[in-house]
Write a structure and sequence with these properties.
This protein is an alpha/beta fold and about 425 residues long. It has helices spanning about 1-5, 40-45, 70-85, 100-110, 130-135, 155-160, 175-180, 185-190, 190-200, 210-215, 265-280, 285-295, 320-335, 355-365, 375-380, 395-405; strands at about 15, 25-30, 30, 35, 50-55, 65, 90-95, 115-120, 140-145, 165-170, 205, 220-225, 235-240, 245-250, 255, 260-265, 305, 310-315, 340-345, 370-375, 390, 410-415.
Length: about 425
């Protein structure tokens, strides 16, 4: 298969989608539940691909189309083959919450000094990671590879492809319980990143305030910690929420000024400290670290603040699980504003823990005297008080808000992507 790997270096890059073909690319035909990329082999050549990889022999009908046993495996092995050509730091990042935001912040900080390759968006699975690695060029000085997991061994498999030299787990919470079964399953899978880095005596940056992470650190690695306690290598303090995070940090004899960021939520405080820690680890000047932290602006409904003609919206409706939902509501409770209400949507993919976890969130809301709306069948079925109004769909809530408008209010929107809370944004 090595000879086929070399075809990559005669092309303009790898593509797996006929709608995005670039001239002289290497097109790899992948399969899914509802599609078979092999059937597009000839179309890919006609659209400009230089070579095509198929895994069904009947489609290898020209000298430009090459057969392999498994196209996905070929993509992954090609990515690892390419990765091995680079002697640069490879940062692996995973976690139940905050990994994409943290990845973006680390990229912002390290890009002040280095040419950085980073995962685009959240292309962090068994296809996205290889495609990221295949974007590496000789100009890159550091790579940041985000790794997601929905089932056992996912992180181990991605580490075999990316071979990270540095690692960070943002946290280990209750996400994708449907695939892992329980919290212990999540812990075991996320920890596979630590295990991979330990094999090469690499480096781990970790949150020392998080006892779960601290208690699962391997021994044969270089450690750099961040947190709020005195023994942290990079010590930070949350100064306030405006709703933006305000913080300061210290390292040895250096103490930063108070930094006002452009992301909201107490939960993002540690994401900032993680990025600062990587800046320190890779000798980015302190002033440039601070600039990056203050200037980074989130996108795609991740901890965004948006002012409308009627309200101020805190948009955090990209995804949700019990840990991130509670963190968002805790931050919202801390927000020093008189008029505020939340709109929260069901947390999906929780398996047999779904009812229990939704009840826990509702109990937190009641105990903290928060007001707002819930969206989704799970919350609606568990809501038993008169304080909250529950709607089965975002469209139903939107129709309600047209006739019962909200004005002069801070509004938190938080829910799983499948609930589509963005539907209500244009009436707020």
């Amino acid at each position: 298969m090595k000879n086929l790997f070399e075809l990559f270096y005669e092309t303009s890059g790898v593509c797996t989608d006929t709608r995005k073909i670039e001239k002289d690319c290497l097109f790899i035909c992948l399969k899914g539940d509802n599609f078979n990329g092999n059937t597009f082999a000839n179309q890919a050549i006609e659209a400009g691909a230089k070579f095509v990889i198929v895994d069904e022999y009947q489609f290898a009908n020209s000298s430009s189309i090459h057969y392999v046993e498994n196209s996905l495996l070929f993509l992954q092995q090609l990515a690892n083959y390419h990765r091995k050509k680079f002697q640069i730091p490879f940062i692996g990042i995973t976690g139940s919450n905050g990994k994409t935001s943290t990845k973006e912040l680390i990229n912002e900080v390290l890009s002040k000094k280095y040419n950085v390759l980073a995962t685009i968006g959240n292309l962090n699975n068994h296809i996205g990671v290889p495609l990221t690695l295949l974007r590496l060029t000789e100009d890159h000085e550091i790579a940041i590879i985000e790794m997601g997991a929905n089932r056992f061994k996912d992180i181990e498999e991605l580490c075999q492809i990316a071979e990270p030299t540095h690692a960070i787990i943002t946290n280990i919470g209750k996400a994708h319980l449907e695939g892992f079964g329980n919290f212990e399953g999540v812990l075991k899978t996320k920890k596979e990143l630590y295990d991979s880095v330990e094999k090469i005596n690499g480096a781990i940056i970790y949150n020392s305030d998080d006892s779960i992470l601290e208690n699962n650190l391997p021994k044969n690695v270089t450690l750099l910690s961040y947190g709020t306690e005195e023994d942290a290598d990079i010590k930070g303090a949350l100064i306030g929420l405006t709703p933006y995070v305000k913080l300061l940090w210290k390292q040895n004899n250096y103490s930063s000024p108070v930094l006002e960021t452009k992301m909201v939520g107490k939960y993002n405080f540690y994401n900032y400290l993680a990025a600062i820690s990587f800046g320190v680890c890779f000798d980015v000047p302190f002033e440039q670290i601070n600039q990056a932290i203050c200037n980074y602006t989130p996108e795609n409904n991740r901890s965004q603040v948006k002012k409308t003609t009627k309200n101020t919206l805190i948009l955090d409706c990209y995804n949700a699980n019990p840990t991130s939902m509670r963190s968002a509501l805790e931050s919202f409770a801390m927000l020093d504003q008189e008029n505020k209400l939340f709109i929260i949507g069901d947390m999906l993919e929780l398996g047999d823990q779904a009812i229990y976890e939704h009840r826990n969130i509702l109990s937190f809301i009641e105990n903290n005297h928060l007001s707002g709306y819930t969206v989704g069948k799970l919350f609606k079925e568990q809501t038993s008080n008169n304080v909250l109004q529950s709607f089965e769909t975002a469209e139903e809530l939107r129709n309600h808000l047209v006739t019962h408008p909200i004005e002069n209010t801070f509004v938190l929107l938080k829910g799983s992507r499948g609930i589509k809370l963005e539907i209500v944004e244009n009436v707020l």
